[in-house]
Automatic annotation (TrEMBL), chains A, B:
Species, as recorded: Thiomicrorhabdus xiamenensis
GO molecular function, one term: DNA-binding transcription factor activity
Protein name: Fumarate/nitrate reduction transcriptional regulator Fnr
Signal peptide residue numbers: none
HTH crp-type domain segment(s): 156-229
Domain Cyclic nucleotide-binding residues, every copy: 22-142
Length: 248, 248
DNA sequence: CGAAGGTTTGATGGCGTTCAATAAGAGTGG
DNA sequence: CCACTCTTATTGAACGCCATCAAACCTTCG
């Protein structure tokens, strides 16, 4: 099952995201065995779906590069954006119970993904004890992310929501070893607005204000944070060690 | 490890909630083995905590009777209510990753709980294959509940939120075999308000309106639903089979 | 019984939505 | 490469929902 390597087809062993996918670390031989079951397809183009709501669940996915938006629609047809998944994030957990995807996942940019067939993954779990805990970590992260999202939607005004979103993205890139004060973000303002429970107009106005006050500039998929302190202050991130918590 | 039985100390085998705790069903001998590891303490009184944020995680909990509120505080000291747990619900999943509770759980009424020591539970998992899937179901439910909460907080006005909350509670009681149009609910309006991202005043006003329009009466912990159709309509639950979905 | 906390009701104001119209990008085909 | 179209972003004005503040009433519990 060993395959030819390419830019989009690097083994877990040589993947820079190993620490993100498996934070507590697996033994080298265990990573090799994981490699054997991982399926690496050609990258998704912008607008292509990784899966759609009601699809049968057969695998978990780890993002290698790009961005995925997880979304669904309410009974009345409004879109709900549940989250954005960056390199190193695991996708598909919502379907573990019903074996059927509850939401849809679409690429917002060229995105490459590692596929973990769930059957084989479960078998591996029996022989790699640590893998089960890794799984629990990923699941737990999913639950906590959901709670964070709810928290953001309750009693935080529009300024705070936008600031927290930008800061959160910055932290996530930092944890992956990228620059945290300047990064590319292929997410439409419209999608951000839906995620934050706001209208595009409101988000636009707030970003204009942040730009005028020289806190954050977000133009043409390029985000630049000029004043991290004030950004964190607006976001309501007071405790000095929150970045540590986020890393955990 | 077999114990004397009492009203608050019934084995899983004889527990009416078995279908809720283990929806897909376990074999009789497996339930017996579960029984052996379950710890049944004396009930919690109103106001007592099952666990608190930052407590070490050592067990999952299944509610047998009563109500538990899961909550935490923001950096700025505001309370966040993440959810209410009814008989048959599983609590403690948020701590699976970090082995440390992230939120606090307090009894809103006299509440009895089954304790599942996680170590022993994990061991059992190896010999009862179906148990692992039960676990995944519980986790998945936790994720989906969180998403439902977010969904409720986005672009739903106060009327819709309150209606959806009452309807949801009604459904949950119905799924447990209780009356769905008349039930006791030991939750303060204040806690409901925080959960819904509203103020107590707003919730009070809306309940007064629902009462005046003869849709729902909620006085002194007694909820009566007089017009389920209109309640569902306000809640934005249009599809006729949503009760089925909720059961799944 | 008295105190503390929860609920109800009313008046006022602010924040974010809504509607509308323009500007700016992105994608397509000539 | 430019013209054309479609989607997204920006900016302005006005309205409405819900928070806020305040005061009275009601429960609960020591």
């Amino acid at each position: 099952m060993k395959e030819v390597k390419s830019a989009f087809n690097v083994s877990c062993k040589n993947c820079g995201l190993q620490k993100v996918c498996f934070p507590t670390g697996l033994r080298r031989e265990d990573v090799d065995r994981l490699d054997d079951i991982v399926d690496r397809r050609s990258p998704l183009k912008k607008g292509q779906h990784l899966f759609e709501a009601s699809d049968k669940f057969s695998a978990l996915f780890a993002i290698r590069a790009g961005v995925i938006k997880l979304y669904s629609f309410t009974d009345s047809g409004e879109e709900i954006v549940h989250g954005f998944y960056l390199p190193g994030d695991v996708l598909g957990i919502d379907a573990l119970g019903s074996k059927q995807h509850q939401y849809s996942a679409v690429a917002l940019d060229t995105t490459s993904v590692c596929t973990l067939p769930f059957e084989k993954f479960t078998e591996l779990t029996e022989s790699i004890p640590n893998l089960n805990q890794q799984m629990l970590n990923a699941i737990s992260k999913e639950v906590l992310d959901g709670r964070m999202h709810s928290e953001l939607l309750i009693r935080r005004n529009a300024d705070q929501r936008v600031a927290q979103f930008v800061w959160n993205m910055s932290e996530r890139y930092r944890n992956r070893g990228y620059a945290s004060d300047e990064f590319r973000l292929s997410i439409l303002h419209r999608d951000v607005a839906v995620y934050l429970g706001l209208t595009p107009e409101t988000v636009s106005r707030i970003l204009a204000k942040f730009h005028a006050e020289n806190i954050v500039t977000w133009k043409k998929k390029e985000v630049m944070i000029h004043d991290m302190q004030r950004l964190m202050h607006i976001a309501g991130v007071h405790s000095s060690c929150d970045s540590c918590k986020a890393t955990a």
